[in-house]
UniProtKB/TrEMBL annotation:
This is hAT-like transposase RNase-H fold domain-containing protein. It comes from Suillus plorans.
Length: 139
């Protein structure tokens, strides 16, 4: 596009906007980081059924992905943003503890039931899950 411009002044401005190889590398890294958010967002999006049972695993996966990358030298330029994003994800994750709906939705999911909690959570939190379910069903 820039090479077709007849005005040298305009062509110089267009050429100035071209990304360097290093900038393209950063664009690639950024799109890589955003792909994790896209996967998490897709877990929450469905017009065919409930996705509440996917909320906790999606938040945990996204948090782990971004937190681990914040520590890698390759992503140094993005470390502050990744840490801030992980902090925000922590806030949303903490909100799930205020509502038993997330845990109950996961327990009622016939494809997983309690398996996710057994695999990914320590035993003391597994006890909390069971207590939560007992309390909900006592009412």
């Amino acid at each position: 596009m820039g090479r077709q411009e007849r005005s040298l002044k305009k062509r110089a401005k267009i050429d100035f906007l071209q990304l360097s190889a290093a900038e393209w590398t950063r664009v690639g890294q950024f799109t890589d980081l955003l792909s994790y958010a896209d996967v998490a967002q897709q877990a929450f999006s469905s017009d065919r059924g409930s996705t509440l049972h996917l909320a906790i695993p999606a938040l945990e996966t996204l948090h782990k992905s971004w937190s681990s990358r914040a520590e890698r030298p390759k992503y140094t330029r993005f470390a502050r943003a990744l840490k801030a994003a992980a902090t925000k994800l922590d806030e949303y994750y903490e909100r799930t503890t205020n509502s038993p709906a997330y845990i109950i939705a996961m327990l009622l999911d016939p494809t997983a039931k309690i398996a996710y909690f057994k695999k990914h959570w320590p035993s003391n939190l597994l006890d909390d899950v069971l207590t939560c379910a007992e309390n909900v069903f006592k009412q």
